Amino acid sequence: MEIPYTYKARPDTGLYNAKVGIWLFLASEIMLFGALFSAYILLRVSAPAGFWPETALAWPRGLLNIPIGTFNTAVLITSSVTVVLAWASLKMNNFAKFRVYMVITVACALAFLGIKSFEYNDKFSHYVVRLKDGKALTGHIEVNGKHPGFWNFNDQWSVAKLAEQKIDKIKVELDPLRDSHGHVKHGAHHESREISVSDIVSLGSYTPATHPFFAVYFLITALHGLHVLGGALVLGYFAFPGAKMWKSNPEQFINRIEVGGLFWHFVDLVWIFLFPVVYLL
User: pTM for this structure?
Assistant: First the structure.
């Protein structure tokens, strides 16, 4: 039995089934990300005044890498263009060009995820160290020659772990001083300092447990990254094993590419909102 309207549009709506389905799915996705962005905004506007980390619950500023975020934005926008060109190539009956553009789209997705993992590694290797004299220092730490990071999470450190391993001192490469807006002060530079573990009240990397900012940052960007990965897998499937349908039912295959493209545009649109809200404001 043939399922109706899999590639032909319904006469009453002008849409085929898959397009109706993807729009309903994207509506639910808008509610999901809308709730997360709302939570971010509410947490930020309710944060106490002051400069983090001196004021523990003040909102951190200037901690995200804007040039890398800008480059990642360009990568995703490029992928949106190439996925449209892939669909247009099929409409012009040029399968070879379709595959080229789709491979470029998937490559952009993987590049985005790779760059994002670099950002994550930087956060997992950055620490805030709170001392008994009330000072709070931030920077990269070195313990017995080990540098923690996203890819070697087992090397994450805490005061309890330092005491357990009977480590007396740690080395901190301090971040340059910043103003209240998070901008590096003119002439500020990195400085290395050895700190006695006995002087430390607490230390932790820039992970979700450290501050609500990092909790929301990792939640939104990781969820978005999962969408990028899922979209890349689907588009990659269409480019190779799923492309067999091009010979048996080209119209339905074109519709599948259109539906996949709509999801991909949504993923890009989420980042276009995420980048200015989280990185720039």
Answer: 0.91
